[in-house]
Amino acid sequence: MKGQSIKLGISIGDLNGIGGEVILKTLEDSRMLDFCTPVIFASAKTISFLLKHFNLDVNFQGVKSADKAIHGKINVVNIWNDNPHIQFGEETAEGGSFAIQSLRAAVDALKKEEVDVLITAPINKANIQAEDFKFPGHTDFLNQELEGNSLMFMVSEKLKIGLLTDHVPVKNVSDKITAELITQKFQTIHHSLVQDFGIRKPKIAFLGINPHVGDHGVIGKEDDEVLIPALARLRDKGHLSYGPYAADSFFGSGNYKNFDAIIAAYHDQGLIPFKTLAFGKGVNYTAGLNKVRTSPDHGTAFEIAGKGIADINSFKEAVFVALDIYNKRCEYGELTENVLQKQPRKKQYSGRSRGK
Question: Cα 105–303–26 angle (5° rounding)?
Answer without folding.
Answer: 50
